Amino acid sequence: MEKRKEMRIRKRILSSLEEKPAIVVDMSLSGIKISMSRPPKSQNVNITLQVGEKIINLKGDVRWINRTVSNKVSNNIGIVIREAPPEYYEMLTISD
Question: Which of 47, 59, 55, 46 lies closest to 87 in space, CA to CA?
Fold first, then answer.
């Protein structure tokens, strides 16, 4: 069931969450879902996206964490975006 008001863009992007490696699973104008091996310790987080040659920095708040275990542990993390530069929103409109 879709909970976000905006459409999600499914796109894998290398990123970091609190300076730890992560992968973006999907994103929207108001939120982002990230997968990483260990969840962040804080609810308020800094996210760095590497889009080609560009680095985009976001600030957000963790809303949920879903831990999955298969052959390795992974944490999917739902984050509401609190602060983002115009480049983030431009990237989403170009991806549509």
Answer: 55
Residues 27, 6: Cα–Cα separation, whole Å = 9
Residue 33, sorted as left (phi over 0), alpha (psi -120 to 50) or beta, turns out to be beta
Structurally, how many domains does the chain consist of? 1
Is 64 exposed, middle or buried (CB count within 10 Å of its CB: 0-12, 13-18, 19+)? exposed
Q: Is residue 64 part of a domain?
A: yes
Q: Identify whether the C-beta of residue 11 lies closer than 8 Å to the C-beta of residue 56.
A: no
What's this model's pTM, rounded to 2 decimal places? 0.84
- Confidence check: pLDDT of 65 > 80: yes
Cα–Cα nearest to 88, from 3, 5, 1, 11: 11
Q: Can you name the residues that pair with 68 across neighbouring β-strands? A: 74
